[in-house]
Amino acid sequence: MSETKQKDVQVFPISADTTVVRSRTWNRLKFEIEYALQRGTTANSYWIKADKIALLDPPGESFQEVFLAALQARLDLKQLDYVIVGHVNPNRGVTLKALLELAPEITFVCSNPAAIALREIIPDQDLKITVVRGEETLDLGQGHCLQFMLTPTPRWPDSLCTYDRASGILFTDKFFGAHVCREQVLDEGWKTVEEDRRYYFDCLMAPHARQVLKALDKLEPLEAKLYATGHGPLVRYALGSLTKSYRQWSEQQKASEMRVALLYTSAYGNTGAIAGAIARGITKADIAVESINCEAADPAEIRTVVEKADGFIMGSPTLGGHAPTQIQTALGIVLSTATKTKIAGVFGSYGWSGEAIDLIESKFRDAGYKFGFETIRVKFKPTEVTLKYCEEAGTDFAQALKKAKKSRKSRKQVSDSSVDRTEQAVGRLVGSLCVVTTRQGELTGAMLADWVSQATFTPPGLTVAVAKERAIESLMHVGEKFVLNILEEGKHLPLMKYFLKPFAPGEDRFAGVAMQEGENGCPILTDALAYLECTVADRMECGDHWIVYGTANNGKLLSEGVTALHHRKSGTHY
Fold first, then answer.
1. Are 333 and 339 in contact (CB under 8 A)?
2. In terms of domains, do 332 and 446 share one?
3. How many CB atoms within 10 Å of residue 297?
4. CA 255 – CA 288 distance, rounded (Å)
5. Do residues 334 and 436 both lie within one domain?
6. 248 plus 337 within the same structural domain
7. What CA–CA distance (Å, rounded) separates 243 from 239?
8. For residue 313, which of 281, 267, 286 has the smallest C-alpha distance?
9. Are residues 266 and 236 in the same domain?
10. Which terminus of the chain faces fewer neighbouring Cβ atoms within 10 Å, N or C?
11. How far apart, in Å, do the first and last CA atoms of the chain sit?
12. Beta carbons within 8 Å of 430's beta carbon, 6+ residues apart
């Protein structure tokens, strides 16, 4: 793929006076958990040209050059009156600074936290900033009266949404987006990006379910005609469905029986990326995460969240050899609030030293807390492999919570005769013993599976049930490759026992296992009876599992034996 194809700009009118500028990359832009599907992304910016001209949400530094070139070809930037900023980070700040040099008279419109960040990023200039503190409006003329709504979340405490009454367009900042790049501007045929939107929600919104619901309460009454998103296709055709889904998914998070308090600060975004990966691993296991950005949280809020949580995890960067003041304050609150029955976790990023991580870990160990995973220390930016490790650590933390809760419950002996008849009947479903294997670059995954069935003749296809909390689940999205290794009766025990064991986060799933690489790049177990090289064609969410439908592209018998089968007594477990 050429460099020009990797990054480009698409300009398209979305109403009489409003234009979208989609800065696009067809490859993965960042190593963060929300980009893990590797389908590229778009950074969507907009301008409204009325009596006054407003530019909304310029992209980050990655797109600065192509974006400003496209903008200057279509607008006289000296006529630009306002730049409305949904949120500010150092990456976007680089573009804002460059824009200010081209249009020095612009007025920034943003929330108060964003205004503070702007003054830190551009310290040497007397910036013109209009701070939004409530639901203020801005009249651009020609009927374009913009209504602003503060929609803060722990990850984006400065988040601001903007509604244009003239066009019915709601500029949603981080809400309702998706990290996927394609030619279509709007979401016609939206079913094709449904998985991307759900994944985006699970990674970015699920840990902030309480704040998402508050935002929806503000945004839904506007009855917008179009969601002008910050990433991915703009939402018109799925607007009602996606809004309903956001509320449903958020309510499910709130209703979870168990929850984890995730407290952190992030100086340059690295600690935040780690926090996101850990949170993703926890929510996969159907445990809610209450994410707290200690820089913006009130001490009373921290205390309340920790009191209600079943476990807590704290993350911090190291700045000047110390933990930020906000983390030290939160640490004191946690130590004085959390009972010793709660499970703890520690993570952080650093440049040249990691004293903040050591401080938190030692305080928790001295206080007698049990840890749900080994302390995570990341130097500089986390890599793709590191983030997968963090996700798996989050899942381990969730499973430790479930195990602790189960051990606290009174155990009653139940005779076989009293086992539920339905569970007994479901348990009589027999499955083929298989091992699912996959590889994506440096990432590998494997799991023992027996909920496998042929699903179609043409094309030859099969279904595999994958528990949501499985590490391999995040490597089995639509378009991704895997191998189904079918085990042989009488020779299956070594492989079955090996892949039954729990793997530590980041542990090599294939150490000491005889294998070869398939044509699709995934491992083939050479001691299997047969194998099928597959591509994920679809996924369906079913309770606590995903049903993955794969088409078989290649396969081979490796032996003339018969398939190993798995017999169960109950349908409540494998």
1. no
2. no
3. 21
4. 8
5. no
6. no
7. 6
8. 281
9. no
10. N
11. 44
12. 565, 566, 567
Domain with 112, as residue range(s), is: 3-252
Per-residue model confidence (pLDDT) at position 1: 36
Is residue 268 one of the residues assigned to a domain? yes
Last residue of a domain, one of 200, 231, 252: 252
**Residues 165, 223 within the same domain:** yes
Place of tokens 């946690």: 334
Identity at 263, one-letter amino acid code: L
Distance CA 204, CA 280 (A): 9
User: Does the residue 571 lie in any domain?
Assistant: no
Lateral strand order in the sheet of 226-228: 137-139, 145-150, 160-164, 169-171, 226-228
**Residue in the structure block whose two tokens are 């985006």:** 200
DSSP 411: P
Bridge pairing between strands 226-228 and 169-171: parallel
E strand residue ranges, 39-144: 41-49, 53-56, 82-84, 107-111, 129-132, 137-139
CATH of the domain at 391: 3.40.50.360
Tens digit of each residue's pLDDT (9 = 90 or more) over 422-433: 888 999 999 999
In the chain, count H helices and then E strands.
Answer: 14, 29
**Using CA atoms, how far apart are residues 532 and 462, in angstroms rounded to an integer?**
10
Segments of the chain scoring below 70 in pLDDT:
1-5, 409-419
Distance CA 201, CA 209 (A): 10
Q: How far apart are CA 488 and CA 305, in angstroms?
A: 51
44 with 22: CB under 8 angstroms? yes
Write down the pLDDT at residue 573: 84
Q: Give the bridge partners for 314, in sequence order.
A: 263, 346
E strand map for 286-331: 288-293, 311-317
Helix (H) or strand (E) holding 307: helix 299-308
pLDDT score of 419: 59
**At 484, is the secondary structure helix, strand, or coil?**
strand
CA distances from 289 to 9, 15, 52, 343, 398 (A): 36, 39, 43, 14, 10
pLDDT tens per residue, range 57-104: 999 999 999 999 999 999 999 999 999 999 998 889 999 999 999 999
